[in-house]
Specification:
13 helices; 23 strands; alpha+beta
Amino acid sequence: MTQTPSETAAPPIPADLAAFVESERRRADVAGVSVAAIDRDGVRAAGGFGFADLDRGEPVTVDTRFRAASITKLLTTALVFQEIDAGALSLDDPVNKHLDEPARICRKDGAPADDVTIRHLLTHTSGLAVSWRGMEYDPLVYRLVANETLRGPHSLDRVVAGQKTLRPPGKRIVYANQGFNLLGYVVQRLNSRPFADLVQERIFDPLSMRDSSLPVSASGAGVATSYGSLMSGGRKPATRVSVYAGPAAALFASAADLARFGQMVLRGGEFDGRRVVSEAILGEAAKIHARNHAELDDGWGLGFAAREWRGRLLIWHSGGFSGVSTLIQLSPQDGVGVVVLTNGGDFGFTSRVGERFLESALGLQPEVVPGSPRGVPDGKADEWAAFTRRVEGRYRLTDSVPPGVMERLVGVTTRPRLVHVADNQLALEGTGFGNAFLYPDGDVGRYRVALPFANGARAVIEERPGGADAWASILHLRRRQ
């Protein structure tokens, strides 16, 4: 299938890249994908592949609206930046200072968590747990797990009420949807206006994002129907989800619209002569503020994930539901980026497309092995071999799902393990995120990882009394002897 023409005027994707996308799309069995390659001046190339809806036979274009999932958090981040620019917020403000009593964050013992700051929420280091609250799934069992009730909270104030931290802030990156729901609620309270109205006025309108909105759900002509599961494509319609957690995940948008958002970021906060956010706060955002291990080369900036990649720092965000995988990646240093939106749940596909477009924009050849690992140094083979034997085995994935019923269920149904493949290379299996491969990278216990959302990034395995810890991106696995 060739690229589908669209109403948005943009050069078509070059033939070699188009062939790559279509080949990968078919291999992953993803129904449709829309891609936009951008620079500071606009869209360099864009196109759609496959189908927005299989029953209707509706092709994907660059204007097709996709559920963007957690890319929504970047809109929330932009609103927070505007409040910081205006002096209404500070990165180091205690969040509770800006919350009413029902929404104030508490510690496990019930005491106010007044040490949690705006910065902690933006970097996912608040100590809040993983949460899917405010997302109503079908079937009902998913809804019960996400909200602890068959009827979830249908307003933002109810979504954010009663949050408790599990650990002191600043200790670890744990991906917390509720942190961004709280940020959206703070902005809503500061302005005494609904969050969606503020996004429309301050983000969508200035950036001419005409195909973007924050509905609970959407369907019909021009909207991509989701197919597959959380981690794979397919032709079966995905589990339906209604999103009441607006600041964390409600966005529907086209690749053309998100290209404008990305262009604004690459231009230091300005778009079409209008200042959206300050260059200074975006400069702060494009730094790694938190890592889960000092030797990792990826972590979190302010609102954006951040990663050292092939001599530059990328800022990015992904999104995912069943039948949804989305990605925006930007290199502020080079002034280029890419938006990838799909209606299939294979994030490995989304990541491969994003990486290949960046390589093309920067004139880089694809790496034979992600991260170009250094391998096992001379004289270290025996030490590496002994270490590999000791760290093989079963692990437990920590802080990846909401605590309680879901955590216990995942503990039974997922069995992460590290398996020696060859030459001290390890395969990480059974995480539910797809298999990963760890390639030795010099010092014992240091690796480069082939992982869909952190391809080529550093990984670390460290022994400790009674077991071992494995760190890769924001994943933490723990082994007990």
